[in-house]
Amino acid sequence: MPRQGDRRTSPRVRLYERIVAAIDDGTFPPGAKLPPEPELAARLGVSRSGLREVLILLQEDGVITRRQGSGSVVNQLPAAPGLERLLPVESLLGPGAVRARRLAVELEEPTDFSGYHLRMAPSERACFWETVIDVDGFPACFAHEWAADEAALRTVAGRALVGVLRGQGPQPPPSGGGEAAAGEADPHARTGTMLAAFLSAAEGLAFTARSTLGATVVGKERGRAVSRPPETAALLLTQTVSVTGRPVLAAKYLFPAGAPLLSLTPRSP
């Protein structure tokens, strides 16, 4: 299924990366307001329509916040951790029977989203999972998750997180049961989100996260995956998960209209 940022040489991706670079170098620091669209388009030498498309992507990715009539603001850096508890979306989807279906697993070069949120070099490769989460047989969440390059994961977590990613695929878990060998993928991770697998595989690690919420529509490709019309409104949760300050996972969780309300009370095991 096509994803935003698959073609890294496109003008849209280059413009996205130029704006992100200006944020990173302090030209547009966190909390700053971007120039009005006509001024910013002229400054960057691009069309207003092309700039508007990229600004929409930046908002969807949690980099900026756009408000009608007041312009675009660069999002603040995450606050220091407090009483928050990081939970996978499976734990937040109410009391129904939750089942995750893996649709795709790929090893890919950084996209505009994963490259920015995981601070990846062009030579690195991200492991990508596409998953649909059903509640009582009804598609409730569409998840795109990227893990950092294996070398980065080993640096902060040894083999624990790398083992989760190996041997994954859209096929069902193998029969026979038994625990996975050290360094090999947990077969149960095939039917859950990447975040759930990471939290389960490395319980001793201190995970922290930065999350943003926004509104969007499901679109054609995502709508097909969750059996909704393209124009269906949706809540978008964008999340970056880190260990000791190093991003290890970046994700987009899309909750279409009609999905169960997210619960702040964890589900019972």
Features:
27% strand; two-stranded antiparallel sheet; single chain; alpha+beta; 2 domains; Arc Repressor Mutant, subunit A; 8 helices; 26% helix; 269 residues; Chorismate lyase; 6-stranded antiparallel beta sheet
Q: Please tell me what the overall shape is.
A: globular
Number of strands: 8
- Could you give a short account of the major beta sheet? 6 strands, antiparallel
What portion of residues belong to β-strands?
A: 25-35%
- N-C termini distance: 32 Å
Helix and strand run: HHHEEEHEEHHHEHEE
Rg on CA atoms, Å = 19 Å
Assigned CATH architecture of the largest domain: 3-Layer(aba) Sandwich
Count up the helices.
Answer: 8
How would you concisely characterize the structure shown here?
With 269 residues, the protein is α+β, with helices and mostly antiparallel strands. The protein has helices spanning 11-24, 37-44, 48-60, 112-117, 150-157, 160-165, 194-201, 219-225, and strands at residues 64-67, 71-74, 98-108, 126-135, 138-147, 207-217, 233-243, 246-256.
Task: Explain what this protein looks like in three dimensions.
The chain is an alpha+beta fold. The protein folds into two domains: 11-74, Winged helix-like DNA-binding domain superfamily/Winged helix DNA-binding domain (Arc Repressor Mutant, subunit A, Orthogonal Bundle), CATH 1.10.10.10; 89-256, Chorismate lyase. The protein has helices at residues 11-24, 37-44, 48-60, 112-117, 150-157, 160-165, 194-201, 219-225, and strands spanning 64-67, 71-74, 98-108, 126-135, 138-147, 207-217, 233-243, 246-256. Strands 3-4-5-8-7-6 form a six-stranded antiparallel sheet, with helices on both faces. A two-stranded antiparallel sheet has the order 1-2. Helix 1 crosses helix 3 (48-60). It is globular.
